[in-house]
Amino acid sequence: xxxxxxxxxxxxxxxxxxxxxxxxxxxxxxxxxxxxxxxxxxxxxxxxxxxxxxxxxxxxxxxxxxxxxxxxxxxxxxxxxxxxxxxxxxxxxxxxxxxxxxxxxxxxxxxxxxxxxxxxxxxxxxxxxxxxxxxxxxxxxxxxxxxxxxxxxxxxxxxxxxxxxxxxxxxxxxxxxxxxxxxxxxxxxxxxxxxxxxxxxxxxxxxxxxxxxxxxxxxxxxxxxxxxxxxxxxxxxxxxxxxxxxxxxxxxxxxxxxxxxxxxxxxxxxxxxxxxxxxxxxxxxxxxxxxxxxxxxxxxxxxxxxxxxxxxxxxxxxxxx
Length: 321
Prior knowledge:
- It is a single chain.
- A hairpin with a 6-residue loop joins β1 and β2 (57-58).
- Helices cover 44% and strands 17% of the residues.
- The chain contains 12 helices and 13 strands.
- The chain is an alpha/beta fold.
- Strands 4-3-5-12-6-13 form a 6-stranded mixed β-sheet. Strands 9-8-10-7-11 form a 5-stranded mixed β-sheet.
C-alpha cells in the first residue's frame, strides 16, 4: 500500500465531504479514490466515513486520526522540498571529531549555504573519517596526522577536577610530574589513570604517548583508552581520572586544564576532500579555516621540514621513535 497516496485520499475526502469532489481535487478517478479509502479503513480496522446519508460524514475514528494524517502529509511535503533544494546545490558529507565546537560547525554550515554548498555533519572516529574519504562516503573530513606535518595543530593537555580557585594561573605540565614518588606504595596505587578519548586512539599517537610515558617513568597501566566521552568526563570531574584533551573541550565542561609541555603530543589535522575523477580535490580555504576553529586548532603552515639551522629535535625523535 502506498500509504501517502491513501492518506491523501482520506484527508481530501474529509475536507471536501464527498468522494467526487475529493477525486477532482486530487486529479484521479472516483473509483480509485474510493478503493484507497476502503483499503485505509481495513488497515486501521474501522470506518473513517459514514456513508449511510446522502452526504458522507467523518466518523469518530476518522476525526481522531485526521490531524495525524495531515501531519504525516505535511512532513512528507517538507521532505520533498528539502530533497528538491538539495538537488539544486551540491551536497557533501563532512566528517568531524566528536569534540568539535557546535557554534563553529554552525558557522561552517551557514557559510556553505551562502556559497551554494550543503554540508551534512557526521561525527566519526579518526580512522573512519580517513576511510570515509577513501570510499567516497565523505566529501570532506578533518584527518588526523603527525603535528609536525599537519596544516593545523591542537595543543593537548590534561583535564582534571575543578580547582577551588577557578582563576588559578595555567601552568605547563610535564609528564614526569605524574610519575609515582619513591617510598609511597599506597599513593602510587591510588594515582588516577590517564584516559584517552576516541579521537586520540590512533596508532601513531598511542605509540608516541607510550614512548613519552616510558621516558617520564609512568607505568604503562596508568594510560588506558576511555569509553564514551560522557563517562570519561564524569570520572575526570569526580577526581577519579585525568583526561587527555584539548583546552576548549575541558573548559566547556568546567574541568581544570593544564597544557602538556611536549609539543610532539599535539594533535595534527589536515582538512581533506574526497578524490575526484581527476585525482585529489581542493578544499575551500573558508571551510578549512572554520573547521580548524571548530577543533581549537592553530595554523601550522611552515611545512613538514624545519628551517635550516632550526631543526625541531623533539619532533624528529618522536617521528622516528
